[in-house]
Design a protein that fits this description.
Strand order of the largest sheet: 1-2-3-6
Radius of gyration: 45 Å
């Protein structure tokens, strides 16, 4: 071939240096582009994925531990409240502790029972408190309305004879022919247990009070009457009523309680 033909087909060499590098057609490290995947790249990728999952799993584990601990605390608190409320209710039903103890017992039982049910849910304390408030309010309304329990006149008649036979009760200044004591029926406790209530005035010495207790205990054991709530008062405070009442009216004023006891 002629020289001039070789000169035309010969590749022209660059005479100047360029600062630009040749573009690499392989724009990634993926094996599909023809470049070998390095083992270290695979290792670091797996390590980053593991660390990210480990962080998420740690947060999830902490959240689960917090939820479990709170539910465990809620169950323990609920169990303690239920046990305390049951004991207080039992004591109120047997020893006539008063209306306040019954209200507290109802609230504790309701709160503890609800806490055991919703211990693992959100806003458990709020739901338990709301349920306890509603149930306690219903109990108070029922207690204020009263439950009609027929008064057993036979029990009061027998108990009145027993108290009178003790010979230590003075004559009443309110109704002079009668002795200074009264007999009625009241209700105490969560289940509104019926009690025979006896109020006695003017029996001050412990020896006389013991005589009354012994006679009531014997009649309670023999007749199987309801529990007897006995209250000893210092004296009858009977006098003229205040101004709003009509003139000449007599009322019972404030009186001092000496002793209270339950005959079961």
């Amino acid at each position: 071939m002629e020289a001039w033909r070789q000169w035309l087909t010969r590749r022209k060499e660059k005479t100047c240096l360029t600062t630009k590098r040749d573009k690499n057609p392989l724009d990634s490290d993926r094996p599909s582009h023809g470049r070998r995947l390095h083992k270290r790249a695979l290792f670091f990728a797996k390590t980053r994925h593991f660390e990210r999952n480990r962080d998420l799993s740690s947060i999830t584990l902490l959240a689960r531990r917090y939820t479990y601990s709170m539910s465990s605390i809620g169950r323990r608190v609920g169990a303690v409240c239920v046990a305390t409320g049951v004991m207080l209710a039992w004591a109120g039903d047997h020893y006539a502790l008063g209306e306040l103890s019954a209200i507290i017992a109802v609230w504790l039982i309701a709160f503890g029972a609800m806490e055991l049910v919703v211990a693992h849910r959100k806003f458990e304390w709020l739901w338990a408190t709301l349920f306890a408030f509603v149930l306690t309010l219903a109990f108070v309304l029922v207690g204020l309305a009263g439950i009609d329990v027929p008064v057993q006149e036979a029990n009061c008649a027998v108990l009145s004879e027993t108290v009178a036979s003790s010979g230590v009760v003075p004559v009443s200044i309110v109704d002079p022919p009668r002795l200074a004591f009264t007999c009625s029926t009241v209700q105490h406790g969560v289940v509104f247990r019926r009690f025979n209530r006896i109020d006695i005035w003017g029996v001050l010495s412990q020896h006389q009070q013991k005589a009354v207790f012994d006679s009531l205990q014997r009649i309670h054991s023999s007749e199987h009457t309801a529990p007897i709530h006995v209250t000893f008062w210092q004296k009858e405070n009977w006098g003229d009523c205040p101004v709003p009442n009509p003139p000449g009216a007599h009322c019972r004023g404030p009186e001092l309680v000496i002793r209270e006891a339950i005959v079961n």
